[in-house]
Design a protein that fits this description.
Strand content of chain B: under 5%
Low-confidence stretches of chain B: none
Oligomer: heterodimer
Mean pLDDT of chain A: 75
Low-confidence stretches of chain A: 153-173
Strand content of chain A: under 5%
Order of helices and strands of chain A: HHHHH
Structural class of chain B: mainly alpha
Shape of chain A: elongated
Structural class of chain A: mainly alpha
Helix content of chain A: 55-70%
Chain lengths: 173, 519
């Protein structure tokens, strides 16, 4: 069995970097480490398919000797799909853990007040934007040459950023 | 007979899909889940009988012959594992339903619980009947993904914290498993186990050793073999009681099953006996030492769980037909008794308001039935004659004596000591939680409680909840099952002896998968 040295070196570097990052405390880094290690393993499976060759599509009835081994590619595809699903779950967990860390154990009980606050700030943003638009319209009506001034006044009053919406409680329906 | 095999995996998966659709109709959802598991129990019982009479059942998925297609193989070992896990899943499901009814379903998001639980079951069954390594990996991933969701149900701070540890550890072991599969494929050009059984022994010795060690390492993390068991006692007790019971009973045993299958089928002459024996001894002793220091019943049970994995590793390490037969019997015993005890811990938590021994007392008076269940379960786990725990350990020790060797004698001594210490830990729990009158609770001091460590997650609250007849019914049904293992120990042990003879002789497996000879 022959293997490409480039792939082997790449795999080794990915394993090394992945393991190193996985040992960090921060969850996001652990996730990145997991992604690196997972993909390094996919590369390992790929390397195990042996020498490169033509695509493994059988036309007619004759088998081509230069074809690559298709099975490792199938295994890789399955592993990629599984890694993808687990990564999505981990991201959700990391977000949840960040949320709990921000607000502590009271994060869940704060939900309603916080949602109300968000609504208020959203209304405020709408109102100020409307006012700005009215002002813009008025200034446009007044004179077209003053346009740049109006834009300045818009920049001075940017819409207030609002917190991301509070997530519902875990999986509670 | 063969057409029944895929149903074991298909029914729970279809049930999971249906339960997900029925998320808003709770009654129907419960009906679907119970029905799926009841049919799996029925099918696996039929399969067990048929396989025992006619030999191994094999089906090629999609009609693709191995080694190109996937095969599902049910031999005697797989059949008994599937049956016992299906029974456990059903019992715990009824317990969870009972708990949900009493709580008005506010505590657990039931619409997610049922589908996830069924996916866990499907993954478990798939891992047990997989005929190739990669399909086994897929089964593992299915059950692990489901377990990630079940462990972090509700997303409270404590569960997220331990959930992340559990998930990262499981991911690392999965990646090890996948890398091992890649190397096995590189060395042999196949992942079909029946072919591997032929090709791996033909490899050079050091290549065999590397492949065997990698697989062993990956499965040992899942089976919680010391020193890879550090994650277990922290993560399991935090989950809801039914989830913990299923995890404790079944998840570690999938790892043990995988070790048993790969070591006997692919590495029959493995030079790893001495390291395995040492690891088994350390698992036994370190696990039970941990259990002695715990004040929390759930944590104590988690440590005994780790400890008793040592008996299974001992049986696998000895490796004689009698030892393997005893190991299979012990796996079945341990699955049922451990699940029952964790469910009982759930009952204690609800009647006593906590699982901390320093705050429990007088339960014998207030909940005599729970006391009875715990007492019998504890005697069984501790290995008091005539229970199945005693019979399993006796068979293991007999196999050890028959095999001989200084190290094995030391291991038998360690096993006997572990059995006694288990009994001590459980008897102390019984004394403090049930026997001690409630009014002695304040200023209680005793040599027994001096060394106890509280659960670091414990917030010291006492919150009693009602029990429902269904919860008690499910737990006592499981207890009856463990007693059944004792009463019918003779026929069951004969069956496990036949199963052991099957897996000790890889040609049985190879001929079943390739009736016309291997390619």
């Amino acid at each position: 069995m022959s293997a490409s040295l480039t792939l082997v070196v790449l795999m080794a570097v990915m394993y090394a970097a992945g393991v190193y990052i996985m040992l960090e405390r921060s969850l996001t880094r652990v996730l990145i480490g997991f992604l690196l290690v997972g993909n390094a393993t996919n590369l390992l499976i790929f390397i195990m398919s042996g020498r490169p060759g033509s695509s493994p599509i059988v036309t007619g009835s004759s088998l081509d000797d230069t074809m690559v081994d298709p099975l490792p590619q199938v295994l890789m595809l399955t592993a990629i799909v599984i890694n993808f699903g687990v990564t999505a779950l981990l991201l959700a967990l990391i977000y949840r853990s960040w949320w709990l860390a921000q607000l502590g154990d009271e994060g869940d009980t704060l939900t309603d007040e916080h949602a109300a606050e968000t609504e208020e700030s959203a209304e405020e943003t709408f109102r100020s934007t409307n006012e700005d638009e009215d002002a813009l319209q008025a200034s446009l009506d007044e004179s077209e040459s003053n346009e740049s001034d109006t834009l300045d006044s818009l920049d001075a009053n940017p819409p207030t950023g609002s917190m991301p919406r509070v997530p519902g409680e875990g999986g509670r329906r | 007979m063969n057409t029944l095999v895929p149903l074991i995996v298909m029914i729970p998966l279809l049930g999971a899909a249906t339960a997900l659709v029925l998320g808003r109709r709770r009654q129907l959802q419960i009906g679907v889940s119970v029905l799926s598991l009841v049919s799996v129990v029925a099918i696996s019982t039929v399969l067990l009988v048929l396989v025992d009479i006619h030999g191994t059942a094999v089906i090629e998925i999609g009609g693709w012959q191995p080694p190109w297609g996937i095969v599902l193989v049910v031999d005697r070992l797989s059949a008994i594992m599937v049956l016992i896990s299906a029974l456990m899943l059903l019992g715990v499901l009824l317990f969870a339903v009972g708990q949900g009814i009493v709580d008005g379903d506010r505590d657990a998001p039931v619409s997610i619980f049922h589908p996830t639980y069924l996916v866990l079951g499907a993954g478990l069954f798939n891992a047990f009947i997989a005929g190739d390594l990669f399909n086994m990996y897929v089964g593992f991933e299915m059950l692990l993904s489901a377990s990630y969701v079940l462990l972090t149900l509700g997303g409270t701070g404590a569960r997220i914290r331990v959930g992340v540890t559990y998930i990262v550890v499981s991911l690392v072991s999965s990646i090890l498993f996948l890398a091992a599969i890649a190397l096995v494929y590189g060395a042999t050009g196949t992942v079909t186990m029946a072919l591997l059984a032929e090709r791996i022994p033909a490899l050079p010795g050091d290549v065999q050793l590397i492949l065997g060690l990698l697989l062993l390492l990956a499965f040992s993390v899942k089976a919680a073999v010391f020193p890879l068991s550090f994650w277990l006692p922290d993560s399991y007790p935090t989950a809801p009681a039914p989830v913990t019971a299923v995890f404790a009973g079944l998840l570690t045993k999938v790892g043990v099953y995988a070790i048993l299958r790969t070591q006997t089928l692919m590495f029959p002459d493995s030079p790893l006996q001495v390291p395995l024996l040492i690891v088994a001894g350390l698992t036994l002793l370190v696990g039970i030492m941990g259990a002695l220091a715990q004040a929390d019943i759930k944590r104590m049970l988690s440590f005994t769980l780790v400890s008793h994995i040592g008996y299974l590793m001992l049986g696998i390490a000895i490796g004689t037909p009698l030892a393997i037969a005893a190991t299979i019997y012990y796996v079945v015993h341990h699955i049922t008794v451990q699940t029952t005890l964790f469910l009982t811990a759930g009952l204690i938590e609800r009647t006593g308001g906590t699982t901390s021994l320093s705050r429990l007392g007088g339960l014998l008076k207030s909940a005599p039935f729970v006391a009875g269940i715990f007492f019998l379960g504890a005697l069984n786990l501790g290995g008091i004659p005539p229970f199945s725990g005693f019979l399993g350990k006796l068979a293991l020790f007999q196999a050890g004596v028959a095999s001989g060797g200084v190290l094995i004698y030391i291991l038998i001594a360690a096993g006997a000591l572990t059995s006694l210490l288990t009994l001590y830990a459980l008897a102390r729990a019984w004394n403090m939680a049930f026997w001690r009158p409630k009014k002695q609770l304040a200023n209680y001091s005793s040599a027994m409680s001096a060394s106890l460590q509280e659960d670091p997650q414990d917030e010291g609250e006492v919150l009693t909840k009602k029990l429902s007849p269904l919860m008690i019914g499910a737990t006592s049904a499981m207890l009856l099952l463990t007693l059944g293992l004792t009463v019918f120990a003779g026929p069951i042990f004969e069956y496990t002896a036949r199963a052991a003879a099957d897996i000790q002789n890889p040609s049985t497996y190879i001929v079943a998968v390739f009736p016309n000879g291997t390619p």
